[in-house]
Amino acid sequence: MQDHSATWQILHSEPETDLKLFRARFDHLRNPNNGKEIRIVTLTGNDSVTVFALTKTGNVVLVDNYRFGVHAYLLELPGGLVDDGEDHQQSAKRELLEETGYAAKEWRYAGSVASNPVFMDSFVHHYLALDAEQVAEPDLDDAEDIRVREVPLEEVRKMLFDGQFVHPHTVSGALRGLTMYDKL
C-alpha cells in the first residue's frame, strides 16, 4: 500500500492557453511516491449547472442537444456554464429559459459533482426546478442545436437506470433530481 500522507508539490506552472470555453494550464509537479517530476494539463474554467425541471403535469424537461465531441445528438438535462459574476442558481434559471423557454416557480439545490477531476478544476451544480412551464421561445447560441422534449417522470427514471443517458452531467443531475424529488 502506498503512503498517501505526502502531497504533490507544484514546482511551477506554464502560462495558460485560452481555449474559448476553458483555459489550459500546464503544471510541473513532483510525485511524492517516486520523486519524479511530471508535466500535467489542467483545464480551468467556470463551473456549470444542470436543471432537473419537472412540469405541473409530471413531465421532465429534456433537450436533444448536438454534441461536437461525439458528433451526435444526446438526450440531456438543460444546463450550461455559469457566467462570470453569476451565482449557480441564477445560471440554472438562465440556462433553463435560454435552452427551453421554460421557467419554474420553485428551485432546490441538489448538490454538486466534480466536472472531471482527472484534468478539470470545475464543478457541476445540480438543481431541481418544480412547476416548470414554457413562458417563452428558446434563445439559442450560435453553436447550439437543441430540441426540447417533455418526458414523463417515470420514463426518465427508467431511462436513467437503463443507461439511456450518456452525458455524465445528465446522469448525475438526473440521479440527484430524482432522489431529491422522491424525498419531497
Concise structural overview:
With 184 residues, the protein is of the alpha+beta class. Helix content is 21%, strand content 42%.
What does this structure look like?
The chain has 184 residues and is α+β, with helices and mostly antiparallel strands. It is 21% helix and 42% strand. The strands form three sheets. Strands 5, 8, 9, 10 and 11 form a five-stranded mixed beta sheet that branches. Strands 1, 2, 3 and 4 form a four-stranded antiparallel beta sheet that branches. The N and C termini lie far apart (43 Å).
Largest sheet: 5 strands, mixed
Count of individual beta strands: 12
Provide the succession of SSEs: EEEEEEEEHEEEEHH
Strand content: 35-45%
Q: Approximately how much helix is present in the residues?
A: 10-25%
**Helix/strand structural class:** alpha+beta
